[in-house]
Structures are given as C-alpha cells and as structure tokens.
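Sharing a chain and its predicted structure for anyone who wants a worked example. Both blocks are below, sequence first, tokens second.
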Amino acid sequence: MQFLANKGSQIFDVRSYDDSLKQITLSKVKEVLGMPQNTHHYDTEDMLAYQAGEKYQLLFLFPKASQQNADPQLNHYNVFYPKGTVNSMANDPGIKYWRSVGL
C-alpha cells in the first residue's frame, strides 16, 4: 500500500500494488463496474476512472493495451480524494480525473 498526503498531512490517495490484483483484467473491470466515467491515456498506461460516492474516485491503472496484450492485467488501483489536492493558498484547484474519454 502507498499513501499520498498533501502539505497538511491529509491523505488524498491510497494505492495498492498487491500481486493478487494481476488476476483482474481490463475487460473484467468494465464488466463489473461498467464503462468508466473517464479514461486517461499515458505513455505506458491506461487509467479508468470511476466516481465512488460524492467524494471519492476509484482509479484503475493498466499497462497499455496492444495487439500482443489486448486485455491487460491490473497494475494497481487508487482510492482518490480530489478535494485533498486543492491548494487554496496557491489558487490551485487540485487534480480531477474527469477530462478525456476513450478506452
């Protein structure tokens, strides 16, 4: 488990890299949770983002799908609290994962 905290020591992101997660595939997450509210595509990873109640987001990160690996296995997941990333003193609205669509 990995915990990320802001300058005020408030935890805003909890991540799990447990090896048992590698049994979960991209298609299984979509089958169980439906289509994500948002996706993000990075150089080596794809992220599915789901709203979890009013305050939290569930983020699932997979290696990029390819012809050799069309249904990748989960690398890690996050329980993310976007409001914990806001920095009012710096006029920073924080991080939200609701921008692009795809996957």
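Comments welcome. Helices lie at 26-33.
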